[in-house]
């Protein structure tokens, strides 16, 4: 690395940052989930972890009350107790964590501002009664990893935490930021790493994939992958138990409410992990057997709103698609491309209702036994003959991961044209 001697500190930081960014653009960005083993934590460690989250909450709320109330290296923070404001000392939270809290509130405000300028209705930032995520900005300072003893050292916690899951991280990885997250089932550390890009193995196969509701994924040869992992018995039971109790002012109240809702959260998470695992397997089956995969950018989110919401939710199709989109072997066909309707022989469009599972062209009489397989073929053709292809992949940077700007639900599907199949569902 070359530094100009005339540069001041900020310029040097800027240069290093630019160089890192350039180097990272040729690498793969991955996040690894690491769990702190809770029964190996001593009393002091537990106190420190909870202290960090508590103080992060104080800082956030203080900033919302008055954005200028804190200076650069603040040691105390104003906390509202009843009607009075009390200055409280910050014991656990580290300096970089403080900075990133300030930064995140600023970026949230900025996001609200841009939305307001666009003419959208926005409210104010709200006070929170909890803060369950703190950004650990820099490897080596805010956090560091000891692979030999399976421990993660975090600024503000005296003894390193004993963790599980470090074996996932490849040895040559470069560390970016991490996040300390408190969940119902324990403390997690999400480490973002940059790893060398894998050299692809060529197999000579190409594949088109059609996403659907009858079969989740249909391939060009007619083979299908179905993922369905419904709610487990345990989740149903936990959901039932949460609101079991007495009614108070029309609202359910129970003495064990928090304990039960924590149990429900853990149960939901287990279901989610099962679905994630199934999605991973489907993804790897596709990626490792093919050189090129053609998919269509469909609004699975919109199907979710229709009659088949549950079915879509259990299928994990969305995560398969999201994972595929980030792979360099995958080409994405625009969502306006009529892959279900188009005839491969004459190119004319024939609308097919959802109940009709085969394909008949009303212009030339072309027939196919499976409309999903035909759609998969059409998607692959569209990619191979290079039309209607939209590539919307972008590089992830830890700076983006920094900002936790609020994104309202459904914002991303605002200007979407709903595919024929999806609009069929809303009519059913
Ligand atoms: Zn035809």
Structural class, from secondary structure content?
A: alpha+beta
Overall outline:
globular
Query: Strands of the largest sheet, in order across it?
Result: 4-8-9-1-7-6-5
**If helices are DSSP runs of H or I spanning 4 or more residues, what is the number of helices?**
11
Chemical compounds bound to the protein: zinc ion
Tell me, rounded to a whole number, the average pLDDT: 82
> What proportion strand?
15-25%
Q: Estimate nothing, just give the exact number of structural domains.
A: 2
* Measured distance between first and last alpha carbons: 62 Å
Q: Could you explain the architecture of this structure?
A:
This protein has 428 residues and is of the alpha+beta class. The chain folds into two domains: 173 residues, no CATH class; 145 residues. The chain has eleven helices and 18 strands. The strands form five sheets. The chain has a seven-stranded antiparallel β-sheet with strand order 4-8-9-1-7-6-5. The chain has a five-stranded mixed β-sheet with strand order 12-11-10-15-16, with helices on both faces. The N and C termini lie far apart (62 Å). The C terminus is likely disordered. The protein binds zinc ion. Zinc ion (ZN) binds next to loops. Zinc ion binds next to loops.
């Amino acid at each position: 690395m070359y530094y100009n001697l005339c540069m001041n500190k900020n310029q040097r930081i800027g240069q290093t940052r630019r160089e890192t960014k350039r180097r990272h653009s040729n690498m793969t960005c991955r996040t690894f989930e690491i769990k702190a083993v809770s029964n190996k934590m001593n009393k002091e460690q537990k106190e420190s972890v909870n202290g960090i989250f508590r103080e992060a909450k104080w800082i956030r709320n203080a900033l919302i009350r008055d954005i200028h109330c804190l200076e650069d290296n603040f040691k105390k923070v104003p906390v509202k107790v009843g009607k009075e404001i009390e200055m409280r000392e910050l014991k656990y939270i580290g300096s970089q964590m403080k900075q990133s809290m300030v930064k995140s509130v600023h970026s949230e405000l900025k996001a609200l501002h841009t939305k307001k300028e666009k003419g959208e209705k926005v409210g104010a930032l709200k006070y929170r009664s909890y803060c369950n995520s703190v950004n650990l900005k820099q490897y080596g300072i805010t956090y560091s990893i000891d692979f030999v003893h399976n421990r993660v050292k975090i600024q503000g916690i005296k003894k390193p935490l004993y963790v599980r899951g470090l074996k996932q991280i490849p040895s040559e990885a470069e560390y970016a930021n991490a996040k300390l997250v408190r969940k119902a089932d324990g403390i997690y550390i999400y480490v973002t790493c940059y790893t060398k890009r894998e050299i692809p193995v060529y197999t000579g196969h190409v594949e088109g994939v059609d996403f659907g509701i009858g079969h989740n994924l249909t391939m060009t040869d007619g083979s299908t992958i179905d993922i369905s992992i419904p709610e487990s018995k345990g989740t149903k039971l936990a959901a039932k138990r949460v609101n079991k109790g007495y009614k108070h002012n029309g609202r359910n109240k129970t003495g064990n409410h928090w304990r039960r809702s924590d149990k429900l959260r853990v149960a939901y998470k287990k279901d989610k992990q099962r679905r994630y695992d199934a999605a991973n397997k489907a993804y790897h089956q596709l990626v490792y057997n093919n050189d090129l995969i053609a998919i269509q950018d469909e609004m699975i989110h919109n199907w979710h709103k229709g009659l088949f919401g549950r079915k879509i939710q259990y299928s994990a199709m969305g995560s398969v698609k999201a994972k595929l989109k980030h792979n360099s072997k995958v080409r994405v066909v625009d969502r306006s491309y009529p892959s279900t309707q188009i005839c491969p022989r004459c190119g004319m469009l024939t609308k097919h209702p959802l109940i009709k599972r085969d394909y008949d062209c009303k212009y030339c009489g072309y027939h196919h036994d499976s409309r999903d397989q035909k759609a998969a073929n059409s998607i692959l053709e569209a990619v191979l003959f290079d039309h209607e292809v939209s590539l919307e992949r972008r590089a992830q940077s830890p700076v983006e991961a920094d900002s936790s700007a609020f994104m309202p639900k459904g914002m991303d599907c605002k200007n979407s044209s709903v595919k024929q199949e999806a609009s069929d569902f809303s009519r059913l």
